Amino acid sequence: QVQLVESGGGLVQPGGSLRLSCAASGIIFDIYNMGWYRQAPGKQRELVASVTTRLITNYADSVKGRFTISRDIAKNTVYLQMSSLKPEDTAVYYCNAVRDSGIRYTYWGQGTQVTVSS
C-alpha cells in the first residue's frame, strides 16, 4: 500500500517560515519524481516545486527564491522549505510522487494546510 504522509503545515505570520515533510512508503522512493502542489480555495491545484530522481529541481515563478525542495533517499522523505511566506501562499499543500515507465504511476498525499496570516 502506497502512502504519502505530509506534515509541518500550520499558521504562520507573513514573512515567516515553515518546513513541510512528506514521508513515502510502499514505493521505491528513489525511482519516483517528487513534487509539491497547492490548492487555494476556489482555485485549481498548481505545481509549487518538483525534484527529479536526478535531483533536478523546478519551481513555480511565484515561489522562486523563497521555497526550496529537497529529498532524502535514506529517509524516503521529500521536504519543502518555505521562507518569506506571503498571505497568497495560503493553501492546502499536497505531496506527489510520479513515475513514467510506459505506464504512468502517480500518488498523492492527503494534504496539509498552510495559512499565512497576521
TL;DR?
The protein has 118 residues and is mainly β.
Provide an overview of this structure:
This protein has 118 residues and is mainly β. The chain has no helices and eleven strands. The protein has strands spanning 3-7, 10-12, 18-25, 33-39, 46-51, 57-59, 67-72, 77-82, 91-100, 104-108, 112-116. It is globular and about 45 Å long.
Largest sheet: 7 strands, mixed
Helix/strand order, N-terminal first:
EEEEEEEEEEE
Helical element count? 0
Shape descriptor: globular
Report helical residue fraction.
under 10%
Give a topology summary:
Layout: E1 3-7, E2 10-12, E3 18-25, E4 33-39, E5 46-51, E6 57-59, E7 67-72, E8 77-82, E9 91-100, E10 104-108, E11 112-116
Parallel strand pairs: 2-11
Antiparallel strand pairs: 1-3, 3-8, 4-5, 4-9, 5-6, 7-8, 9-10, 9-11
List descriptors.
118 residues; mainly beta; seven-stranded mixed β-sheet; four-stranded antiparallel β-sheet; 11 strands; 54% strand; globular
